[in-house]
Amino acid sequence: MRRRLPRLASVLTAGAAALMLGTLGFIGSSDATLADYAPQQAAPASPLAAAYDSGWQAGVKALGDGTAPTFPNVTADSTDPGTLAWVDGWAAGQAAALGDDNGDGRVDEDESGWDCRTMGNGLCGSDVPAECERAGEVLQLCVAVTSRPPYGWTNPDGSRVDNPDGRTQVRDLDETPGTPEWADALQALDAEYREHGTRR
Ligand SMILES: [Ca+2]
After folding, report:
1. How far is the CA of 157 from the centre of ligand 1 (A)?
2. pTM, 2 dp
3. Lower Cβ count inside 10 Å, N or C end of the chain?
4. What pLDDT score was predicted for residue 3?
5. What separation in Å is there between the alpha carbon of 125 and the centre of ligand 1?
6. Where are the domains positioned within the chain?
């Protein structure tokens, strides 16, 4: 998690915050007031900055260990500049805590809050061998095939088949990585391993 300093400039984008207040039931059932979130440190230069900073702290506190942004449950005048600054601070504080670098409410793969172990396909860059870099939609299949050890089997007629490890097999494919034909070839390698990979 990374914390950035509050940016007062985003108070100027308060129009977006007002829309959020209007559409998400901000005015309504309530068990807290703005007074509950009074600034806990020396007052910044202006009331708007103080409201923003207070909102930031309240937002981070309300987020706790959560992984998705939340909305403040307080009653306030949604046209008041101080309220808008406070809500702006709330959203910015949560975005910073979550690592949602562009503040769009979602942590995407290229953002600092992304955890490759638990998000998306659960694969981290270091888990993806070079042979699978262009795998696209069949990435997981490719990673599975390339993870396999060398294996072989003896046919009923006595002939012997020995396959190299999965990475070598994928590298040796004639098809161009990323094409449907290549995906079909991966499927074939996978099927062959499932059929023969545990026999000796
Ligand atoms: Ca984002």
Report:
1. 59
2. 0.52
3. C
4. 47
5. 19
6. 8-98, 125-196
